[in-house]
Each structure stands twice: as C-alpha cells, then as structure tokens.
Amino acid sequence: MMKTNNWFLYIIECTDGSLYTGITVDVDARYAAHCQGTGARYTRSHPPRRLLGFETHPNRSSASKAEYRIKRLSTAEKWKYAATLQRLS
Fold it and tell me: Is the pLDDT of residue 25 over 80?
C-alpha cells in the first residue's frame, strides 16, 4: 500500500472469531505487527486470522472518531460494517 498522509481504520478477524478494530497510517505494516505479536495487547492473546478491510480517513481525528463509533457496535453490526470496507489488493 502506498504511503499517504491519510489515516486508516481497519478491522481484523481473530482466530477465536472476535473482531479487533484499530487505526494506523500503514495498514500493511500494522497488520504484520499484529501477526507477529507486536501489534496490540488484544491481538497477542487473540491472534489475527485475517484482515477484513479498511477505510481511509483524512486525519487522525477522523479515524479516531470512526474507531470509537465502530467499537461501540455489537459484534453482528461490526460484521455487517466490515463487509463494506475496502480490501487490500
């Protein structure tokens, strides 16, 4: 993925079926960190299965607000939302 000044919200499906939502400036690098156990405390105990997708935000504030909104959704709502996200090619 190209480096930009944008921030990204992303959702990961973990091996136990749970979902992890985060923000970053580099989705590829951040997902790799989660897979290596150096991403977030949550994904160290809930290893990633796959990256479900991401969406682009113009700045950190916008991405953080979206992350907060998504983290408040139910699991079923998060799955529905994840289906609308962009995929890495």
Answer: yes
Q: Residue 13 is encoded by which pair of tokens?
A: 């499906």
User: Does pLDDT of 89 surpass 80?
Assistant: no
Q: What one-character DSSP code corresponds to residue 5?
A: S
47 contact partners, CB below 8 Å, separation of at least 6: 14, 15, 35, 37
pTM here?
Answer: 0.91
* All structural domains of the chain: 7-82 (3.40.1440.10)
Q: What is the pLDDT of residue 4?
A: 66
Mean per-residue pLDDT, 32-52: 96
Minimal CA–CA distance to 57: which of 74, 48, 69? 69
Amino acid at 65: K
Instruction: Report how far residue 75's alpha carbon sits from residue 45's, in angstroms, rounded to the nearest whole number.
Output: 18
> Cβ distance 88 to 55 under 8 Å?
no
Residue 24: strand, helix, or coil: strand
